[in-house]
Amino acid sequence: MKRVAVIYGGWSSERDVSVTSGKQMAKAARSAGYDVVEIDAGRDLAAQLTEANVDVVLNGLHGPWGEDGCVQGVLEVLDLPYSHSGVLASALAMDKLKSKAVFQQAGIPVAADKQVTRAEAAAAHPLDPPYVIKPVAEGSSFGVLIVREGANGPAKELTGPNWRYGDHLMAEEFIPGRELTVAVLGDRALAVTEITTLRDYYDFDAKYEAGGSQHVIPADLPAHVTEAAMKFALKAHQALGCRGATRSDFRYDDKRDRLVILETNTQPGMTPTSLVPEQAAFVGMSFEQLVTWMIEDASCQR
């Protein structure tokens, strides 16, 4: 019987979501017959894993440190097979500017953007409104601000006392229309889900609060859009060098028939409201089967 460490928690802004994801995966792994050890990851993770004496790691961490190649490097040093993407793919995908450069090179359409500091974005509009301000390396929509058309000036939150998302930002053209997402498992794109919410955009609360959003699967789209979204999601997964499970997010402007990729998530959520388990279920894979697939897919790069 494989002894599996499910690591979750950590200290990023996404800690609470990670704990929920990890506990859900641990429960499913036990149900599938694995010997499971739950580890709330600390900065002594290497010692925690060595003491646990495990065969494989199921990574339930989200956000900086757990999703950006750092913990993946620790697992490589320990020579412990782990789920999801490796060091380089994780680092590239977490950096919105670098991943978009990869997407463009692969022929995947993206929105126009500009790299800015927080001071620059707070001093003057970096792009003509409407545009979106995004921290370069945060997940779960933390720090995302929409500057609407006709706005008198940049977003005031950038100079507020509660800003904790760093000084390296990306200003990105706002794409009106519909929010779409596609999960990829290995070499297979699963489906296209449309996400609708009554909030201004698909923010943290919309993603994780019960009733915060509605998921339409399969999305009611023209056939060529469904085909393009699935093709580009798989292409993004491959271009970044990902493995395991990913989820790519898109915007579709149906008035101009324009589809663009926003980002690829290498550690997609595994909470009760998460999109990847929902798409897996749509193609006939139970949550327990999905977790089993992730464990058996685990590997090291070397």
UniProtKB/TrEMBL annotation:
Keywords: ATP-binding, Cell shape, Cell wall biogenesis/degradation, Cytoplasm, Ligase, Magnesium, Manganese, Metal-binding, Nucleotide-binding, Peptidoglycan synthesis. Mg(2+) 2 binds at E263, N265. InterPro entries: ATP-grasp, ATP_grasp_subdomain_1, D-Ala_lig_Van_CS, D_ala_D_ala, Dala_Dala_lig_C, Dala_Dala_lig_N, PreATP-grasp_dom_sf. Mg(2+) 1 binds at D249, E263. The active site is at E14, S140, S274. Residues 100-296 form the ATP-grasp domain. It is found in: Cytoplasm. One of its GO terms (cellular component) is cytoplasm. Its cofactor is Mg(2+); Mn(2+). Pathway: Cell wall biogenesis; peptidoglycan biosynthesis. SUPFAM superfamilies: Glutathione synthetase ATP-binding domain-like (SSF56059), PreATP-grasp domain (SSF52440). It is an enzyme of class 6 (ligase). It catalyses: 2 D-alanine + ATP = D-alanyl-D-alanine + ADP + phosphate + H(+). Pfam families: Dala_Dala_lig_C (PF07478), Dala_Dala_lig_N (PF01820). One of its GO terms (molecular function) is D-alanine-D-alanine ligase activity. GO terms for biological process: cell wall organization; peptidoglycan biosynthetic process; regulation of cell shape. Belongs to the D-alanine--D-alanine ligase family. This is D-alanine--D-alanine ligase.
